[in-house]
Each structure stands twice: as structure tokens, then as C-alpha cells.
Design brief:
Helices cover 57% and strands 9% of the residues. It has a four-stranded mixed sheet with strand order 2-1-3-4, with no helix packed on it. Strand 3 and strand 4 form a beta hairpin. Helix 5 runs parallel beside helix 6. It starts with a strand and ends with a helix. The protein binds glutathione. The site of glutathione has 10 residues, from helix 3.
């Protein structure tokens, strides 16, 4: 097996977190190469696009979190088998990624500008995305995004919803998910209580 190194900020969340959890669930050995925000200026030029996460496979440094997530999921047995289920899994991961991109665009704003931008997100793009995720969960029987089992799509949603619920994002109401997408709220708790996720955080 190739040597794997996942490079990302030293936070329990963000764009590398689903792959970290997936590797852990699958028992896939990897180097969890974390660094502090203050070290990013040094790390940035060592990456192909000046961005993290990257996954280094032997000597090849790969970018794009959802590509990395899919790779980790395939190794860990957390990627759907059928074409249609993989389509839904990919759709959901890209929905969350698009919301992450919109959220990151508000970092650096302050005061009223931040409040206006975040409220617009909460009431607009995030609510729309959460309602669609809710629909996907209901369509699949109410428990998971696809295949009635935990896949990488569930981990991607879990990490995002954790951030939304946490209160660390000013002007994003911590009850937004519960109010607009109750099945997503329950899904968050289900994933948090799944053995692989509990084991991962217990080891951290
Ligand atoms: N499309 C990329 C986006 C990666 C990205 O923007 N990562 C952030 C950190 S979460 C970053 O490195 N930002 C620094 C920059 O773009 O200058 C992906 O999916 O991985």
C-alpha cells in the first residue's frame, strides 16, 4: 500500500475531517499531518494550488477535498457501490462543499457586513441546501444519505452540521438545522453516535 499523508489545519473539522474519519473507520494507515493556522504561510507554497487539504500518495500531492474524500471512502468501504448511489453521494458532498465555499467568503467580514452576509446565507443558500439534504435522507428511508448505511456523504454532512450547530459561526443560528431540516438534525446525532465516529474522536 502506498504511503499516505493528509495535510490540513490542526482543527477537528473543516475540509479534511471527513477523510480523516473515513481512514480511521477503514483502518487505513495515514500520516495525519496537522499544522497551526500560524504555519499556513509556510505550508501554502509547498502545495500545488496554495490550498489545503492535500493528500500525498508516495510522491504525488493531490488537491481537492472531495476527490480526497472519495479516495478515502473507497479504501475504507464507505463509498456507494451503484452508479446512482454514487451520484447521490457526490451530489451531497458537492452541496456541502459549495456551502463551505460561501461560508469561507464571509471570513474577514466584520460588524454589520458580517451579520448581513451570514443572515443571507442562513436564510438563503444554507436553508435551501439543508432542505435538499433533508429530502435526500427521507428518500433513502430516513437514516442515511444512501444505501441505508454510513458513507462518506454522511461524514461530509456531519462535519458541516457540527460547525453550523456549534455556535462558533456568528449570526448562524445554532437551531437552524433543527428548524429547517429536522431529519438532518437527527442524522447528525445518528452519525455522531455511530461506533466508528465515536472511536475516532475517542482516539483524538
Ligand atoms: N477546492 C478546494 C478548496 C480548498 C481551500 O480553499 N482550502 C482552504 C482552507 S479550508 C485554503 O487553503 N485556503 C487558502 C487559499 O485559498 O488561499 C478543495 O476542495 O479542497
Amino acid at each position: 500500500m502506498a504511503k499516505l499523508k493528509l495535510t490540513y489545519f490542526d482543527i477537528d473539522g473543516g475540509r479534511a475531517e471527513p477523510a480523516r474519519i473515513a481512514f480511521s473507520i477503514g483502518g487505513i494507515k495515514f500520516e495525519d499531518n496537522r499544522f497551526g493556522f500560524d504555519k499556513f504561510s509556510a505550508v501554502k507554497p509547498t502545495t500545488p494550488l496554495g490550498q489545503v487539504p492535500t493528500l500525498t500518495i508516495d510522491d504525488r500531492q493531490i488537491t481537492q477535498c472531495n476527490a480526497i474524500n472519495r479516495f478515502a471512502a473507497k479504501l475504507a468501504g464507505l463509498y456507494p457501490a451503484s452508479d446512482v448511489n454514487s451520484l447521490v453521494c457526490d451530489e451531497v458532498m458537492d452541496i456541502v462543499e459549495e456551502c463551505t465555499h460561501k461560508l469561507v467568503a464571509t471570513f474577514g467580514l466584520e460588524g454589520e457586513a458580517l451579520q448581513v452576509a451570514r443572515t443571507k446565507l442562513a436564510e438563503g443558500a444554507f436553508t435551501n441546501a439543508l432542505k435538499l439534504l433533508n429530502k435526500r435522507i427521507v428518500e433513502q428511508g430516513g437514516l442515511y444519505i444512501c444505501e441505508n448505511r454510513l458513507t462518506i456523504a454522511d461524514l461530509k454532512v456531519f462535519v458541516w452540521v457540527h460547525a453550523l450547530n456549534s455556535g462558533i459561526l456568528d449570526h448562524i443560528p445554532t437551531d437552524l438545522v433543527d428548524l429547517v431540516a429536522p431529519q438532518v438534525h437527527e442524522h447528525y446525532q445518528r452519525v455522531a453516535e455511530s461506533p466508528g465516529v465515536i472511536e475516532y474522536y475517542a482516539k483524538r
